[in-house]
Fold each of these.
Amino acid sequence: MWPLSVAPFHVAVVPAQTTDDVTAAAEDVYANLAAAGVEVVIDDRAERAGVKFRDVELTGIPYRVTIGRRALAEGMAEVTARATGETEKVPLDAVVAHVRSLVNA
């Protein structure tokens, strides 16, 4: 894992499925994070979620925001910290503030 100060990106947004609603929500989270000044990348490839998760891990990006069908139905996203492996559900409208608090800590 890269330290935040030298990581190519602080956060990777990963849509777990390629359905329209999941993709749209992931793109919205990505755009809001970028607008908030967070160094973010989105993995919008048409790959399985496991492939995307592995690639984010191999790249060493410190945080991953996963947008999946089940969490989206609850209005949530999953934020994973690579250093601890902990994943927490965060309301979609609070993702930007939550991630900013993590990268500015």
Amino acid sequence: MLSSILFYSLDKAIRQYRRMAQANIDRAGVAITIDQWLVLRVIEETDDLTQSDIAERVFKDQASVARMIRLLLDRGMLQAEPLPQDGRRTRLRVSAEGHRTLAALEPVVLNNRAVALQGLSENDLNTLRFLLEQIAANCSKQPE
């Protein structure tokens, strides 16, 4: 039975969370997807990343990240500044509009997390975090 497979349950939880979170973002009237929000947040946290670095951090392929970056640039949420030492590269920075969007979504994101983690103690969360990191480490040791 699928429900007895741990990774099925994990994927189900993630998909349910993303559905709920996106619905709440939409209800808040902010025109952005969860993945676009993730890209914006990653760039806000570290603004000197390559597209492949960003893709790795948000668990998406480079082509998808390139499309999201282009859309965020077109919507004025990101700015691209040419690097003086390398004219082929640009540094992505979150624009004022991007910061406004992130700020508008902060309460929605915090509420989404609170709803999803309701009933879990701090100890439960620490254990879950540890176990998920262990699974990720186990998987990264395997040859691809």
Amino acid sequence: MKPKSKNSFDKNLQQVFILKINTTKNKIIMKTMLLCLFLSLSFAFVSEKTGWLEIDWKIIFIPALLVLQIIIIGTALKNRYKKH
């Protein structure tokens, strides 16, 4: 009987974790990061094919990381100076 209760506890914990992640704000952040990553990849691919610019493919994820940092810092500042 112990494994059954542990299994249900794990499922409940997973559901709570998914519900906390699956918020509207997090969906917007993920869509923004995916859009930024898609734009970076498409720009790099077009630049590489046309020969206009040589792209180092190791640094292609930097714009998405910068967007994530801006979102995190903006949220932290907004929460820090929120009026009660």
